[in-house]
Please model this.
Amino acid sequence: MSGRSLQVPGHGTLSLTPALTWQFGHMTGNGEMGVIQYGPPEKERIVLSQAELFMPLGSPDFIPDMAPYLDEVRRISRTEGYRAGHDYFIQKGEELGHTIVLTDPFHPALTFVIEQEEANGAGGYSRSVNYATGEITSSCDRFTHQLFASRPDGCVMLRISSSVPLQNVRLSIEEAGHPGVKADVQFKGETWNGIHSYEHGGGYRSKIEATHNGEARFAGGCLIINGATWIELKMKVAPEIGSDFLFSSGSYAECFERHKKKHEELFYKASLDLNGGERRSWSGEALLNESKETGILHPALIEKCYDAGRYMFLCSAGSRPPNLQGIWTGTFDPPWSSDYTMDTNLQLGMASVFSANMLHGMEPYTRLLESYMEDFRYNARRMFGCRGILAGVCASSSGLHTHWGDSSWGDRECDTFFGAFWTCGAGWLAHWLFDYYQYTGDLTYLHDHALPFMKEAALFYEDFLIEVNGKLLFLPSYSAENGIAANSTMDIAVVRELLTNMINASILLEMGEEDIPRWQEMLGKLPLYELTEEGALKEWAVDDHEENDDHRHFSHLYPLFQSYEFSPEKTPVLWKAAEKAYQNKLKHWVFNPDTDTSSHGRMHAALCAARLGDGKTIAKIMKMMLSGGAVYPSFMTAHFENHHVFNVDANGAFPELIQNAALFSLPGRIELLPALPAEMSEGMLKGMLCRGGLTVIRFNWNVSAGIMQLIIKSSTEQDVVFYTRQPGWSLNEEEGMEWIQTLPAEEPIQLEWRRSYANERNAWKCAPECELDHKGSKS
Model:
């Protein structure tokens, strides 16, 4: 017997059945190495990955000089149609030898196998992952496995233990069997040393070291251990073929204590408590099944989504930001190469980095973008003959914009993928660079990183945009995966945000004053947003392109969910137009049972709902995802329902969404309970960051009691407007919907709001009714 009692993590999830595929496994990571644990207890697999490992495909690393054809593309687009202009561009590219190029794929480093025949017939199986410590545990009534990816020691540690001697424990490295990588693994002194060479150059190194208190022999490619009550292994993968590396000293327990302290420091910087109660101890499968069978979105489920989203980011962000699969994969052929897809997915993976208090994640994000700068400059020159930078749709081991050509998207046909004409990527990526300043007030970062990147993104537009009748024209212009025309609304919105932020940054830094008039002139010449006859915001600000609301991307609502350009106070007409466009998207895509189930589209829909005060739709979208299989029992997410395609961008967005429903910030303004679903009617947030250098020490709310309590600290003395859309609140007996408070520097202050008629029937409205249910019929 192992003597183990069932341990349910306070923050984490539990399963009572083995994971039969890696996608259903439990995962951990330290920002450099990722680990997946899956398989039955008699043959458990440990998949190691490393954030830098993208397998070279030997693809062409050049872009033909397409700049001479831009004028003709524009002429054809105006006279023969936008698709004809695109086809001409592709034809010229093919004549010059270009074909669509897949990015180098992210891949597993190796799979370590633990075979224990005595596990056959064993009872009491369970497995868990503790988000707060990063430790994975699997056990039955005969033994226990524990593992974690150490932050201070930079390695993965695994312990197998039992209260009785274990027999015939077989440890081995599974053959990868992939032509793109050749492994030369040598075993000596109970240590595996591996040199893994890529077919097209380069490679990586691995090392696994075993210690135990039994007897061992090596046979048939396995280390076979008998009579041990404990076995410990240290594992490491490094993204280069170089000299040997050493493991730090210490037992599993000693190393875990060092690691636990660092991981907990990160995890407990922010937290959510919705009174999840005893369901917190339910298995992930039980919680998800209840939601599927009953339609209930229990507060415990929302807590799990919040914790898992932060956990994904904390495990993945270190060497690099999260890729499509975070820092994990069990396949050498991942969908979309598990790369950095920059027309929505990377951005969603980064969505919670600020508000959920994970600021350290900006270092790998910034480093990644700056490592691509030369490639981005090359893209701009070769694609359109422009200065500055151009980010393509996809990137991995390079930032070259080579994923364009015919109308294929990876290995499937897609008639609306026109990646050659995606030009707003760099501007969208720059959003996080400036927002880092807005959250932290860090002028050094603004000077050294944000403004230089933004300037080069804007420089591209200075060359690319043409002036027609006093207005700048975006042609060609692509609205992600939803067609091409001129003047996509997203292009306009991204450039408007970019120029505005650059002007503000230059004023703050007191530099580049000579550039400001030029940027202001560009702002004044940007195309105006256009509305449909019914008053909805159009996806293209032109008269010769039809709207298509049955699509998973929410590009034209960028001013609503990302740049926050629209507001009911400053832009009431556009706010209403965006709301109408959002309702059309709900009807034709989100709640249309005949369309696809992309999680990234649902996340952007929910983020729009949070801005519009539509808490009911937030709850409906979360129910759809949780009950439909877009969330695994580990609470990692899938790209589609029915657990189809492991993908973590929705994980990245969940904490931002949940927090935005409870508290939303812009510099100098905080909105209280803007879009609260009924399922979040009582709760507490700790550690949330707000724009303007504000930290939420604690925010409590109770709808039925009609009370909000906020303890908040500002990094500087400033006046902050607190406001709500709900009438009947008072602060210090001052009734209203808006209050101005002077916050001192670095001194927490407490504010308490009361609602005078909170107990009257129907006094509180958590959110307006959505006009459609999830089947698309009238509510």
